[in-house]
Amino acid sequence: MAAPLHSHQDLEHRLDPGTVAVPPPERLAQVWETPLPTTGAHPPLFAVLGAHGGAGTSTLARWWAPAADSGLAWPGSPLTTQQVIVAARLCMSGLAAAADRLREWHAGLAPDGVTVIGLVLTESRPGRVPAMVRRYRAVVAELVDHIYDIGWHDELVVCELAELAEYVPFDPAPRRRSRLCEAVPADVHRAGTQIIARLADSYSSAAAQHDSEQTP
Q1: What is the pTM (predicted TM-score) of this model?
Q2: What is the pLDDT of residues 4-23, one digit of tens each?
């Protein structure tokens, strides 16, 4: 399911940097210095950052039309969005890499302007998630406002990236058993809807605060 496992009161909750175990220098992410590419009709609303290779950033950014694929690098340019969804596989190594990226951000080591707005975890195989992985996921959940789960989708094995359907804000929920070239999976649709809704709430709150500060 795509419902968040853990949430705080806002999208900008950060831990005290002094309480965060900082990853060693060799495990820090690179930085994308140039603006993120605009592949759709509008500039991206958020970036998908892979915590490790094979995290599925290209697939997720294809599925979510408002997203940009940031690869393994933080979006460092303020000319495009610096709202980040960290992506990882739901396995011990994937969770460990996700924890590195989240601690890196909490410690202030990500570029200025970057805000982590969630973590998306994609199942690494079909079937039940091992208990050890579930327990570690609960630990990692303490480092992020929202977690979204994406299940295993067999059809991805035979689909080209360009063939995949896209989620656009306000799209209706997909019909059951739709092919991936016809509609995004239901869990991808739910996660996209929740991400966009939280971004809209964040922007509305920021605008209201700005207006109140400008009122004499």
Answers
A1: 0.89
A2: 333 333 445 788 888 889 99
Greatest Cα pair distance in the chain: 60
pLDDT digits (tens, 9 = 90+) for 43-75: 999 999 999 999 999 999 999 999 999 999 999
Secondary structure (DSSP) of 68-110:
EE-TTEEE--TTS--EEEEEEEESHHHHHHHHHHHHHHHTT-S
Side-chain half-sphere exposure of 107, counting CA atoms within 13 A: 15
Report residue 73: phi and psi, to 5°.
-120, 145
Shortest CA distance to 51 belongs to which of 131, 2, 10, 105?
105
Say which residue the tokens 């209201």 belong to.
Answer: 208
Is the Cα dihedral 76, 77, 80, 82 positive or negative? positive
Please answer whether residues 124 and 90 qualify as being in contact, where contact means their C-beta atoms are separated by less than 8 angstroms: yes
What whole-number distance in Å separates Cα of residue 6 and Cα of residue 3?
9
